Amino acid sequence: MAVVEINNVFKSYHDTEVEVKAINGVTLSFEKGDFAVIVGPSGSGKTTLLNLVGGLDQPTGGEILIAGHRLSELKPSELIDFRMDHVGFVFQSYNLIPVLTASENVGFIMNLQKWPKEKRMERTNELLTSVGLADRHRSRPSQLSGGQQQRVAVARALATHPEFILADEPTANLDSKSAESLLDIMEKLNHEEGMTFIFSTHDVRVMKRAHRVITLEDGKVVSDDVRE
Amino acid sequence: MITSIAWKNIWRNKTRSLIVITAVTIGVFAGIFSMAAINSSVVQRIDAAVNEELSHIQVNSKDFRRSSDIQNVISNYPGVVSALESTAGVTQVTGRIIIRGIASTAAKSSGVEINGIDVEKEREMFTLFRKLIPGTGSFFETDSKFNTVFIGEKLAKELNIIRYIITPEAISSLREEGLPEDFIKKVETLRGERFTSDKKFEKACEKILEPDEIQKYRWKIKEAAWSYREGSKIILTFLDIDNNQTGAAFRVSGIFRTNNDMFESLSLFVPIDELRQLTGMEEGTFHRVIARLENDDITNDITPAIREKLPDYEVLNWKEIQPDLAMITDFINQIYAVFMVLILAALAFGIVNTMLMAVLERTRELGMLMAIGMNRRKIFIMIMLESIFLSITGGFAGMAVSEAVIAITGKTGINLMKYSEGMEAMGYSAHLFPTIDAQFFFTTTILIILTGIVSAIYPARKALKLNPVEALRGE
């Protein structure tokens, strides 16, 4: 069964007198274990599509199903809980909570979900070890490099076993070494744990590693290449 | 967790938070301390009124206060005393003879109210005896074959009993105080001269001293030159029980100094037996019965009960006798309310401003929190808590500073001698001992917390209105 199903989705904006169709009839599905990237020029609708899939924004037409849940049927408050339980987010600029340590950041969503402390600590240690930051668990984001912060963000996204992870330009602010290292970790999680990753990116390093490359132009899917 | 993040968040921008906390601290301190100072002035005035001048309850015949007729005595003194003593809350009762008369010396005369008192009883009930100026005698402690009188400093000055003389001792005391030699040399030019009034002495000082020297050392020279000859005599003239003019010489037993010029110049005290003998009033006759209560606060509750027991008499409490005192208490409460509204409004604007900045600066972070699953209620609580922490921290710091300063100045006092003439003319002390009760602190704390909560609502609502997608895009 598909983890994400996007059926003939539209998203229009009326910021100006002219209607802007950011997403124009996109139909896609993502299976468990996908390592897919959405590429396209700026303004092609990559981030908008990710926001729709993540339940951060509502489509103006069509429907999106995540693990069988129809997003349009969820109330705003239910959508927040839904995101917390089913979607992991990795942002371009890391977006960690600056006043919390690495382990507190990783444990943040578990805390919101009221996990018992011991279980939370165990999972936090496990994730920080898997992203290679076990020794930096007490560091605040300002004490970590960009690459390290993004690895903490990945660990946070994975913490509560979401259905999939949406990563919006995750390597855009990283140097080559950090970007490769981050992609290694994500690839490993994809191989070993079958975690589904959906990226939006301009970065060829990400594209090279993807199993599937979807190209958007003017809000439409112009190609969907699956690699062996 | 939300609480912990909120607390950590306020220390993200330490400088800004410290500025807000300092502003709150200063505001709270200013409010509490000025209220404590004003309050002390009122408390001291009420204490003086109750403990030195009026007592809590006064009972006299219905027309006595208006006519002051010597024959208008309390018809059933034992009955009145018994009614008062049987009232719960009344602790002590005594009677006084009160007559109008004239006090005079060879130099001057002045209208006075002569109070015939039971010396021992009054010593138990009032604190006026503690107001004796050292070196002027005692509160009727010396055996004397003369009639004796206890008078106020103001009256003593009016009657020229107190004078100002620059003696060698006065010069030495100024030197011991460490006053500048140039200044002392100028004062020495007045050596040996006698000044029979404040005004004359001040005029003489103005001629030889610079205005700033007078401003600075006025009270020190007056204190040093203050001169009184113990055992001075005054003549009291008044009507006896048959309305014949009579009078006698009274030796001044002691001179008291209060903060109430009017009381000092009008009221004088003589042992009741001496007055009874001179007026021909019978044993057991009194014009006024005075009662003390357990405390000031029960005055309003007890007065109607006494009034009911003594319908044939005029029963007045201290608030009714001096309504300005009751009014000033209400006035002070109103000033307090205005003060607190101003302080809390300033505090609220400060917090709204700071929290709005904090929300706007953290737009992206708040968007991220919403994106990853932190619901709006928790975000609202987090912003509210940040505001409450800021106001509570500043509030408690302000209260701690106030408490410390009030504790220190409550002992040392705040000297407003510069304004003493005006203040004492109104019966208020120029030496304030700030005091404030615990309930005031409690109320202030609650108000500060409420202000913190109210001022956080707008920034918190602003945060709630953020759209996660737009917030994440924001810089």
Model description:
The complex is a heterodimer of chains A (228) and B (475). By secondary structure, chain A is of the alpha/beta class. Chain A has one domain (2-100, 145-226): Rossmann fold (3-Layer(aba) Sandwich). Chain A has seven helices and ten strands. Chain A has helices at residues 46-53, 76-86, 102-112, 117-130, 146-158, 176-193, 204-209, and strands at residues 2-13, 20-31, 35-39, 61-66, 69-70, 87-90, 164-168, 196-200, 212-217, 220-226. A six-stranded mixed β-sheet of chain A has the order 6-7-8-3-9-10, with helices on both faces. In chain A, helix 3 crosses helix 4 and helix 3 runs parallel beside helix 5. Chain A is globular and about 50 Å long. Chain B has 475 residues and is of the alpha+beta class. Chain B folds into three domains: 2-48 and 325-473, no CATH class; 63-160 and 230-311, no CATH class; 162-228, no CATH class. Chain B contains 20 helices and 14 strands. In chain B, strands 1, 2, 3, 4, 8, 9, 10, 11 and 12 form a nine-stranded mixed β-sheet that branches. In chain B, strands 6-5-7 form a three-stranded antiparallel β-sheet. In chain B, strand 8 and strand 9 form a beta hairpin. Chain B starts with a helix and ends with a helix. Chain A binds chain B through residues 51, 54, 56-57, 77, 80-81, 83-85, 89, 91, 93, 95, 97-100, 108-109, 111-112, 156, and chain B through 1, 5, 8-9, 11-12, 364-365, 368-376, 378, 468-469, 472.
